[in-house]
Amino acid sequence: MKDEQYHPIGAATIAKNRLFSQFHAQYPDHERERIVKSLVQGVSIIQVLFVTVAFGIGIDIKDIRQVIHIGVPYTMEEYYQEAGRCGRDGQPSKAIVYFNSYDISKGRKHLTDTMRNYVQQKNCKRKFILNYFGHKIPERDLPEHTCCDSHQCTCDDCLLSDVAMLLVDPEDSNDATCNSSTHLEDMSVHRVLNEQEISIIRKQLEQYRLTLHGQGRSCVGGITLATGFSFELIDNVIEQAATLKSVEDVMLRLPVFSRTHAEAIFDIASQF
């Protein structure tokens, strides 16, 4: 992210202005104290915090919206405590676990069968957790999508989100569900790129992607993980290249977190 990791844009490139940070035993004490104090007081600018399992014990931070586990916690008790650090203000929050076959293999010591079963669970995960702790699942009048990922929700919001573009009236420019950059009228009339144009755009996007690697092979996790500029993103750009109207349009319609990336994409896509 280079300079974009500091807030606001143009701010001094020092730790307290960074949008993300880490928190572990080897991190300087004064930095850990600053991070905790700002989070508890609700004045932190940090958007992503990389932490060990010890973070949050004895600390009440109310407005954490998401807890992401890279790998599977050993026990349900550990998972329940760690996932419970988000949503303490009562607002909708998510707990997500990323894992692969090794993470749940029998060769992984100390991992309980309960957690192996939990992450592979095809039925209600909320019920699974409550049953484990000896509780019955309470009656809920909320949409199913607010429960867990095992539910195939059929509420109006979910159904509408799937077909929103088909339901927008192209004559109504004030429709609250229609942004000018994704307006059906704008999208319905555009030419199709030919194979040569697609080839040129793809090559330029791939060349731009390579420039993000920095000096040498120090890009942690590869270009995709470090910058978000994946080959899948390139495919998405090509699919929508003829309909992109502005840099803001790129940021709205494509999974791009950097305005610098969005500007580069628009410059390349808009040449035809």
UniProtKB/TrEMBL annotation:
Positions of the Helicase C-terminal domain: 1-130
Family matches, as Gene3D superfamilies: P-loop containing nucleotide triphosphate hydrolases
GO cellular component: chromosome; cytoplasm
GO biological process, one term: double-strand break repair via homologous recombination
Catalysis performed (reactions): Couples ATP hydrolysis with the unwinding of duplex DNA by translocating in the 3'-5' direction
Family to which this protein belongs: Belongs to the helicase family. RecQ subfamily.
Official protein name in the record: DNA 3'-5' helicase
